Amino acid sequence: MLIVAVAAAITLPAAASAAIFWQEPTYDAIETTTFPPTFGQTFGDFGGDDVTLGSVAVRIAQTEACPSGQTAVFNAGLDEVSSYDDTGGNWTSTQAFAYDPSGDLDPEIIETYGFVPLSQNYAIGVTSYQLFPYPSYLLDHTKKYRLWFDTQCWINEEPTQNFGADLIMGYASDGVLGKRQHAGIEQWVNYPTGTFSVILDSAGGMHETPIIESPPDGAKITELPVVFTGTCDATLPWVNIEIREGGTLEMLKTIYCTDIGTFDTSDDGAQLWNGTGFSATAASFNNEGTIRVIGDPVGFYVDVLGNPNVRPTMPPVPPEDCANADTITEQATCWITQRLHEMMIALFQPPAGSMDRFRNLWEAVKNKPPVGYVVVTANTINTLTIGTPSVQLQGIAALSNFFDPMKTLLTTALWLFALVWLFNRAREIEV
Amino acid sequence: MITNFLINVLYDVAFLFTLPARLFENVTLPATMTSAISSAAPALGTINAVVPVTTVLAIVALFVVVEFAILTWKGVNWIIRKIPGVN
Q1: For residue B21, is pLDDT > 70?
Q2: How many domains does chain B have?
């Protein structure tokens, strides 16, 4: 059965006063290509210094049980990425090291697959924190790295399938926990550069990540629930949903359809800032590498009052180096141009978010009298719909051949009269 | 700097102008009015069999918007004429 429809919608926490609108989505299978074996983003760029990798704080909760008799294994590792194509998702890498935090693998398997068992047995299936004490590992600031996770069910020394789990990673840079749901397929946890959870100790040596308490669910006001629903495809049971802005990946959600039914991502969320250029795409795929993009990207915008998520700003363009000018005249012209440029920016460029105060003021006033009477009345009238008739006029249904053309004629006449009235009213306006 | 100053002045004026209104409680419509509107839905459904209700409502909305815009325009002009030296 083909994926026949994916209805997309965003909902907001009840406390948020906001409006998010989706363009009406239309989905059809339009493309078939090869799905890359893994995907995500790299991290790197340590400010020009080589640093030593320390530890990673991870909280994991198993959300999907393995079949009877099979062992749940949670693996993690670090790869050094040789090349990566952000647009195509193609990359090559060399494994630096890998772990079997569950401690349930046989030594032979560990050796075969290169896993390094931890001395501490990690009881998967419960929600708790786990520190991965990576050995001191020198990170080259000129290279890219990827931390990966994999949740697999094993039997007879072979993995059989992935199981679902929730992963929560600590963001060492700001001490805030970020959540990425691991839906049961080998995938890269997606981190933007600079907010990675590892402790990078420039002094070298081990450095333990502090245990960071997860904020209570009610405090996650920055996370907008993103809801996608649709019907699963038997041959392509995985569904990838991406939210991008300007080509930059903001959210990646992978869903596995456990049976032929509908999928629902209502438990997931995305930290999106206010903006008009968001688009969401969906694609289904299978483990054999077949992927089917579902329809065109769905465009939408986010308009959340007091949205604490701030759009990442591009670094300022460095000014032209006037020292490279050939003559003194050119240097002087360059210098004056730069100063004028800076002066115009200082004079006329308003600070970011300066207009948000007006929206906050409107929110505070719109329900107060006298404006509130208009707003509330208009909102109430907007809820007025043409309901199901409580009284059926006898004979109407039988005479629909007569009434339907009459309604069309009446509609045309009413609009004609309205236009004539509008024209005459406009002529009477005294400026 | 200049743009920011103008924005701040506009905001301060709007803040002061709306200060009395913000002291009041939120407006709530009488329950009879909301129930009247909700109970109008099935009645509209009955009438819609004969009369194009959607068109009628759209034209009424057009009428209200145009008249309100004209009234606002006249109000703004009236305020401007109160400025000394402006006729």
Answers
A1: yes
A2: 1
